[in-house]
Request: fold
Amino acid sequence: MFQGSMVALITPMTASGDVDEAALEALVGFHLDNQTDAIVAVGTTGESATLSHEEHRHVIKRVVEIVAGKIPVIAGTGSNSTAEALELTEAAKLAGADAALLVAPYYNKPNQEGLFRHFEALAKGVAMPQILYNVPGRTVSDILPDTVDRLASISNIVGIKEATGDMARAKELIDRCSDRMAIFSGDDPTAFELILLGGKGNISVTANVIPQLMHDICAAALAGDRELALALDNKAKPLHKALFTDPNPIPVKWALAKMGYGHVDGIRLPMVPLNPSFEAGLLEALRLTGVNID
Reply:
């Protein structure tokens, strides 16, 4: 159902921090024109942590409306509160999202049984496709392979975004679970390698800026063409690196603002605009990957 290059879309904002409605519409159009395979709205890169619930629901609804069924829309609806995640996931379903992306509960530090019961409750509570999201570098919680294996037996848990960048972990998940769920990368520098191992795609930060190239990388890897995937990924490497010089989504929002989508100061505290010391390097990475900045 879901595969290829799936952009972890930013939420464009004005200088005052309001959602930039015109930029959001233009950015979604940019992805529709450049072969992005699916859009993830209001995930980590979309600043889900600092959007109000009303804004969260609104952005998902607008993305669904703009996409108009052309590609899948996956809504970030995870929370460290199971009740809150249920509420957001139900709202995403009502808005017409095709699936929910559910990050591991953060801050609480649940054990593996707690993680299993959290995701089980969401799957039972909302009848829509659901994708787990494992990013222990942000959440501290790590959904271990044994727990993923248990969850893969729940019919509407259809995938996992594995963002550790650990290829041994990716291979174990693919070997154990890929007959029941899709394994997606959440780490741009290693994404094509995960797909070549049997993964189905990449939920990507870099795709915000170079959607066509990221689509092409994923398509080559899905076709099993290692040589082409590697050659294409080498073109994207400068951005894979430069977009993480400051914490995500700071660099990618700055880059997109330079491309005309949002404002360079359009980010919410506690995140702050890009450190000026990183600007020259990011501009050079954009140039090397063929992005024209006026």
